[in-house]
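Quick note —
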Amino acid sequence: MKTLTILLFLTPLFSCGQKYFEGEIVYSNETIKKESSFDLNRIPCAESKSTAIVYKNGDFFSRLDNCFIEYQYFNHTMSQVFYKLHGADTLLFEDYNKNPPEGDSIISVTKYNNTDTILNIICNRIVVQRTNTKMIFVYSPDLKVNPAWFKNARSGYYDVIYGQMKSVYLKYIIEGEGYISTSIATKIDHKPISSDIFPEVAKLPKTPL
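Predicted structure written out below.
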């Protein structure tokens, strides 16, 4: 599940009066094999071609096409990720307050400036090398988030990723054993997001993954 998810547009952030990014971003997704023998069914939602994510005050809510997951919701106050499966009433959740497994710890984090241009925006990137996976995130410093929102989300490495970027990402590349997953922003819409879009998880049945 942790391979899942994540942003853009041309309107300057200050024109919307936003200190931190709030709005919706649509991404184009692709997952490919590095070797023919690898089974892509091991990667959740590997057939997904599009993701739409809304962001508001440290929370984000995403929907993927062609996926058994109806939506994914990160609540930054709880530092938990909730998954709603199609046809299911009970939410699955992961607690990101825990420390990540020692067997897949972060080896290095490297930052590079002015490496990519996405939707005519010049971006930076960070490369997070883990024991078994390399994660690359491309971002614009203008699409700000508050890194304090993610300081307790250690299990998903959000504390490191958002602590370094201090922004939403516009592209990610996740390279694991046998596969490469890529997601790149194709549209960004700065707009107010109603809190009603987020599920009231306290009122819904839940079970841990």
